[in-house]
Amino acid sequence: MTLSAEWRCVASELAPGASAKFRLARGARAVDAFVVHVDGGYHAYVNCCPHVGTPLDLWPNEFFAEDGRTLVCATHGAIYEPDTGRCIGGPCVGDRLERLDVRREGDTIVVTWPG
Ligand code: FES
């Protein structure tokens, strides 16, 4: 499979409270990424915690904290706002996840790694 800087999925496959993982590439660089569907919006980020740089999900595709709303890094427990990627609790308060562009084309969610 050829990687690209764009990932697509059918919106109905990403239920409210759900997330999905994927990989994006631009030139020789590639990143792991994820998208979440929360409060009617879709938000996507590079899957890399700004604290130490590990992926957020120790268990694959587990990004939500126990409250089902905020995002959590499984390594040391940093808590992130799902709509902004801003860390609001834990060891890197004020840092942000790297945001990816998300747009909707009809029934399709399109995530793009900005170049
Ligand atoms: S690596 Fe995410 S909180 Fe430490």
What does it look like?
The model has no long low-confidence stretch (mean pLDDT 96). Helices cover 0% and strands 42% of the residues. It starts with 5 loop residues before the first strand and ends with a strand. Strand 5 and strand 6 form a beta hairpin. The protein has one domain: Rieske [2Fe-2S] iron-sulphur domain (Rieske Iron-sulfur Protein). By secondary structure, it is mostly beta strands. It contains no helices and nine strands. The chain has a six-stranded antiparallel beta sheet, with no helix packed on it. Strands 5-6-7 form a three-stranded antiparallel beta sheet, with no helix packed on it. It binds FE2/S2 (inorganic) cluster (FES).
Features:
115 residues; Rieske Iron-sulfur Protein; three-stranded antiparallel beta sheet; binds FE2/S2 (inorganic) cluster; six-stranded antiparallel beta sheet; 9 strands; 0% helix; 42% strand; mainly beta
Q: Radius of gyration, rounded?
A: 13 Å
Q: What number of domains?
A: 1
Largest sheet: 6 strands, antiparallel
Average pLDDT confidence is 96
Enter the CATH topology name.
Rieske Iron-sulfur Protein
Shape: globular
Assembly type? single chain
Ligands (ions, cofactors included): FE2/S2 (inorganic) cluster
Helix segment tally: 0
Low-pLDDT parts are none
